[in-house]
Design a protein that fits this description.
Strand content: 5-15%
Bound molecules: nicotinamide-adenine-dinucleotide
Radius of gyration: 17 Å
CATH architecture: 3-Layer(aba) Sandwich
Structural class: alpha/beta
Number of strands: 7
Number of domains: 1
Oligomer: single chain
Order of helices and strands: EHEHEHEHEHEHHHEH
CATH topology: Rossmann fold
Strand order of the largest sheet: 3-2-1-4-5-6-7
Distance between the termini: 42 Å
Largest sheet: 7 strands, parallel
Number of helices: 9
Length: 266
């Protein structure tokens, strides 16, 4: 028996990295999944491998009409919505604060915070009448301490943790749990392409990441996906308003500060 048997989920940013690993783990555990992402080719490739239990929906998480349509599409296709994973993300603005533009602010906060707000709002819209649901947003260790990401990324991820705790208070009495995961540096395209036109070799990046954490190995997308499966499942039925840090000891050891604001690469 799967841990998510019969559940219906939406994963934003489900076409790559942590989101794609989450989609794969959700399917393994018996869920039906809608991938909500901009990356159509990558999303459709996942659908082609899995068939009828997965759908792709072209969604920009900064657009309320598109997020609302994805939620409605999930309900139309599978009859309900049990799990909303607000995971789509970008690094956004990098560099010194004095050089950061208003446009870069709007883009970064738009994807990382407005996207989570819209996903949560529209998931709640259909979960409230059901009287059940689990909403999980991808924060970051940059949402726990400063110095692990660029300024606006750090601000948005702290806001995701606060938003999660606030909404958990409203929706808990209605049977809906609201949680976050905070990945440490994880081997995904977001990290391997950071400030580069061509992705760096995975093995090289994995070695760098491993050197910065207590447990001596790079965190992989499936490690974060496993935490999301737990929060989505009945095993976490008394867990709400929580931010689950999965970082191989990065924040505990304090060894990981990256000087994004000085323009250095990690
Ligand atoms: N990789 C890490 O080290 C790390 C660490 C902490 C937190 N995170 C967070 O994990 C989440 C997933 O990141 P990842 O590392 O898997 O990156 P990724 O680049 O592999 O995947 C991000 C996905 O989000 C999608 N996306 C971007 N903007 C979108 C938009 N406006 N609408 C819809 N989809 C959009 C992209 O198309 C892509 O498929 C992000 O929220 C990121 O901030 C990543």
């Amino acid at each position: 028996m799967g841990r998510l048997d019969g559940k219906v989920a939406i994963v934003t940013g489900g076409a790559s990295g942590i989101g794609a690993a989450t989609v794969e783990r959700f399917i393994e555990e018996g869920a039906a999944v809608v991938i909500a992402d901009l990356a159509e080719a990558a999303g459709e490739e996942i659908v082609a491998r899995h068939g009828a239990s997965v759908r792709f929906c072209h969604v920009d998480v900064t657009r309320e009409d598109e997020v609302a349509a994805a939620v409605d599409a999930a309900v139309a296709a599978f009859g309900r919505l049990d799990v909303m994973v607000n995971n789509a993300g970008i690094i956004g603005a990098v560099g010194p604060i004095a050089d950061t533009s208003e446009a870069a602010y709007d883009t970064t906060i738009g994807v990382l915070l407005k996207g989570v707000f819209l996903g949560t709002k529209h998931a709640a819209r259909v979960m409230m009448p059901q009287g059940s649901g689990s909403i999980i947003s991808t924060a970051s260790t940059a949402g726990i301490v400063g110095g692990l990401g660029p300024h606006l990324y750090t601000a948005a991820k702290h806001a995701v943790v606060g938003f999660t705790k606030s909404v958990a208070n409203e929706l808990g009495p209605q049977g809906i749990r609201v949680n976050a995961v905070a990945p440490g540096s994880t081997l995904t395209p977001m990290v391997t392409t950071l400030r580069r036109d061509e992705p760096m070799d995975d093995a090289v990046v994995a070695e760098r990441l491993a050197s910065r954490c207590l447990l001596g190995a790079a965190v992989m997308p499936v490690d974060i996906a496993n935490g999301i499966v737990y929060l989505a499942s009945e095993e976490a039925r008394f867990v709400t308003g929580h931010c689950l840090v999965i970082d191989a000891g990065q924040t505990t050891s304090g060894t990981a500060a990256h000087q994004f604001h000085n323009g250095e690469q990690r």
